[in-house]
Amino acid sequence: MDARDRLIIALDVPTVAQAEATVARIGDAACFYKVGYQLAFAGGLDFARALIAARHKVFIDLKLHDIGNTVAKGVENIAKLGATFLTVHAYPQTMQAAVEAARGSSLKILAVTVLTSYDDNDLAAAGYKSGVRETVLLRAKQARDLGIHGLVCSAEEAAALRPVIGTDIALVTPGIRPAGAASGDQKRIMTPQKAIAAGADHLVVGRPIVEAADPRAAAAAIVAEIRDAG
Ligand code: C5P
After folding, report:
1. How far apart are the CA of 10 and the centre of ligand 1, in A?
2. Which of 31, 79, 87, 198 is most buried, judging by how many CB atoms fall within 10 Å of its CB?
3. E strand or H helix that includes residue 38
4. Which atom of ligand 1 is nearest to the CA of 176?
């Protein structure tokens, strides 16, 4: 896989105009963009269509979770959009509905194990009896058995997950910070080089690129780091 295809830039900006400007500034330094809540709810799904028409790849990060029928209908329409990745929460019913609905399309379903801003205390506060590590492993095994195409997990978990899920399931890791970058609200972070060495297939990077003085240079530096590590 080309190093550029391994970097996914999170377009966490409030307006389509800002997203367009960011993509224009990045130019050909990157080719894969993630559209999440903020942008999707401000016209970002039409913008995603435009990105795809311009031969970019798009990851729709709406982390779906609902009754199976509702998930399936939503997934069918995201598949029609031409997106490459879509996230769902790693609950068995949700994963099963999403995988079945994506069948026959080029859309790949990624399951979110445990959000990278969560630690053991946050899981306990949410009512879970097991910690991050155990919960991630349980959900990864369920995802594998249900035919999920990829998992979103922290880079710290990637090395432990690979033996569990085999080589066919993509590992997509947010919580990436180049050395010296601010961590923000991410609690489990790793540098691009270390994440690739840990077995990540794709890295999701938002603020360190989007908020950089020179987003193109920031993206190019991470692509170079991925290339050197791969
Ligand atoms: O700005 P930053 O690099 O922290 O952005 C990370 C992106 O990855 C955000 O869009 C966030 O929603 C997303 N994400 C995450 N942890 C997950 C799943 C998605 O940080 N488990």
Report:
1. 7
2. 87
3. helix 37-39
4. 3
Cα-based distances in Å from 201 to 3, 89, 173, 215, 217: 10, 19, 8, 22, 22
Catalytic entry in 34, 63, 108, 194: 63
- Look at the chain and report how many structural domains it folds into: 1
Domain of 141, CATH number, reads 3.20.20.70
Is residue 206 lining ligand 1, measured as CB closer than 6 Å? yes
**How confident is the model over 93-106, as a mean pLDDT?**
98
Told to judge if 129 belongs to the known catalytic residues of this protein, a careful annotator would answer no
pLDDT tens digits, residue range 43-88? 999 999 999 999 999 999 999 999 999 999 999 999 999 999 999 9
- pTM of the full predicted structure? 0.94
Q: Cβ atoms within 10 A of the Cβ of 52, count?
A: 16
